Amino acid sequence: MRNLTCIVCPIGCSLSVEEGELGADGFPVLTVTGNRCPRGAVYAQEEIRSPKRVVTATCAIVEGPVLSAASSGDGGTLPAGRPAGFTGPRRVPVKTSGPCPREKIGALLKEIYQTRITLPVRVGDKILPNWDGLGIDVVAVRGLG
Q1: CB atoms within 10 A of CB 120
Q2: What's residue 81's pLDDT?
Q3: Of 51, 58, 62, 75, which is most buried with the most CB atoms under 10 A?
Q4: What is the pLDDT, as a whole number, of residue 78?
Q5: How far is 11 from 44, CA to CA, in rounded Å?
Q6: What is the DSSP string of 34-58?
Q7: Confidence band (pLDDT; 50, 70, 90) for 3?
Q8: Is residue 29 pLDDT above 70, yes or no?
């Protein structure tokens, strides 16, 4: 028997999960008790069989000069990295757009921490789109630059 606290809603039901015989899908049949709503039972099933988490982290901002209008090709200025004189944060907070399988979180964090972002960045910009083919994006949660 495993005991969990449901995190789906603010009530925080104390759930008890018992494993039974193997079902047709090859997984043991799980019996969930203690939930006050059906969402708690679904949460417990997912948490036991395939735990997932939303991941938050930070990416470094690349150091670099502001390129001239001539090098941007569009008549404007194109920032490359941290513009000269920028005194803001050195890292940009990011998060996944959805939950990531728990066994892949280490690899995801490794890639996030190796990623370098050039400014400007806006809230919602995809830093790592469709990471590892899972359909989740790593997005910026703060705009800078």
Answers
A1: 11
A2: 56
A3: 58
A4: 40
A5: 15
A6: S-SSHHHHHHHHHHHHS-EE--EEE
A7: very high
A8: yes
Cis omega (within 30 of 0) for bond into 79:
no
Nearest by Cα to 80 from 51, 119, 132 = 119
Tell me which residue of 81, 82, 138 sits closest to 111, measured CA to CA.
138
Task: Check residue 65 and report its DSSP letter.
Answer: P
Please check the confidence at residue 134 and state whether its pLDDT lies above 60.
Answer: yes
Q: pLDDT of 54-98, one tens digit each?
A: 999 999 998 654 443 344 444 444 445 555 665 667 899 999 999
CA angle 77, 83, 85 (to 5 degrees): 125
- How far apart CA 68 and CA 66 sit, in angstroms, is 7
Neighbours of 30 (CB within 10 A): 17
Residues 6+ positions from 96 with CB-CB distance below 8 Å: 54, 55, 56, 108, 131, 136, 137, 138, 139
Q: What is residue 101's predicted lDDT score, i.e. its pLDDT?
A: 95
Alpha helices in the chain (DSSP H): 38-49, 69-72, 105-114
Tokens of 11: 């009530």
